[in-house]
Design goal:
By secondary structure, this protein is an alpha/beta fold. It folds into two domains: 73 residues; 182 residues, Rossmann fold, CATH 3.40.50. The protein is built from 13 helices and nine strands. Strands 1-2-6-5-4-3-7-8-9 form a nine-stranded mixed sheet, with helices on both faces. The longest helix is centred in the middle third of the chain and has 16 residues. The mean pLDDT is 96.
Length: 290
């Protein structure tokens, strides 16, 4: 790994470093040549930190072990992709707060696949939702469409499992570091995806997931995709956040209709009413992509 990227990854591990702080630092010092020589006052002004948080940042900045983390990750076959690497997906360069570094394990070539469909939905799907995925996903795989989702319970997990079972390409975007898979019940599934697909995170592998990470990671799920398919979802949910981010990014939104008596379909039916494209078979999406 080159010196510049090594320093970028080190900064990404420092407590107190923010997206805006790193943005300004890259403007001040694009080559990151002076990061170990900057005075305390510079960091205080840049990061708007006071003691003891400022001291924690300085401690991390001069921590030799943290500066060596890229080598540790390399031994675990974890890729550290900077925003300048050729493997970094161009679709993420136009989203809100594009990640400076992506941490990935698996087949990184999937990041530049042109036909990626996000499949998202409720964490408590009905048998109807399960059957919908069993019907649609094999046809997507047959059409060389990669599936991305968030490794959450419910529709996310089902989409991942059915994609893998049919020999398809599967991507998962998680809300914590690669060493802290959540939910824990999906650890086995995560390892299968690492072997046959790709798992990515904008958080260093050592970072434990926090509640606010998950709404933020949703912009990556939508950002990586060419379009978003919603299968069973209430209106107020994490799915709603992903759809909102997708609309901001100019992505097509597709939704599978459900019974008017089914609460898990209340969100999908509402999005169809508001302009999402109705899907009853894979061809409804495939025809848009031809």
């Amino acid at each position: 790994m080159d010196v510049w990227k090594n320093r970028l990854v080190h900064l990404d591990h420092c407590r107190g470093m923010s997206w805006k702080g790193l943005y300004q630092l890259l403007k001040d010092d694009p080559e990151l040549l002076k990061i170990y020589e900057r005075p305390l006052l510079y960091w205080k002004k840049l990061l708007h930190l006071e003691s003891p948080n400022l001291q924690l940042f300085i401690k991390d900045l001069h921590n030799i072990k943290l500066s060596q983390m890229p080598s540790v990750y390399e031994q675990d076959e974890i890729h550290c992709l900077s925003f300048l690497d050729k493997e970094y997906p161009i679709t993420l360069t136009n989203i809100y707060q594009q990640p400076w570094v992506l941490y990935a394990k698996g087949n990184v070539s999937l990041l530049t696949h042109k036909r990626i469909l996000a499949i998202i939905g409720t964490r408590a799907p009905t048998e109807y939702g399960n059957e919908v995925l069993k019907r649609l996903v094999p046809d997507f795989v047959q059409a060389d469409i990669s599936v991305v989702s968030g490794l959450a319970k419910g529709i996310d997990s089902l989409a991942h499992k059915i994609t893998l079972a049919n020999g398809g390409d599967c991507l998962a975007v998680i809300g914590g570091g690669l060493h802290h898979i959540y939910p824990r019940e999906n650890i086995h599934l995560a390892h299968l995806i690492m072997q046959k697909g790709l798992i990515i995170s904008e958080y260093p592998p050592v970072v434990r997931p926090k509640p606010w990470h998950f709404p933020m990671r949703n912009r990556l799920i939508s950002g990586l995709s060419k379009a978003i398919l919603v299968v069973e979802s209430k209106r107020k949910s994490g799915t709603f956040i992903t759809v909102e981010r997708g609309l901001e990014q100019g992505k097509d939104i597709f939704a599978v209709p459900g019974s008017i008596f089914s609460e898990p379909s209340s969100g999908t039916n509402a999005w169809i009413r508001e302009g999402a494209k109705l899907v009853t078979c894979a061809e409804d999406i495939l025809s848009e992509w031809e």
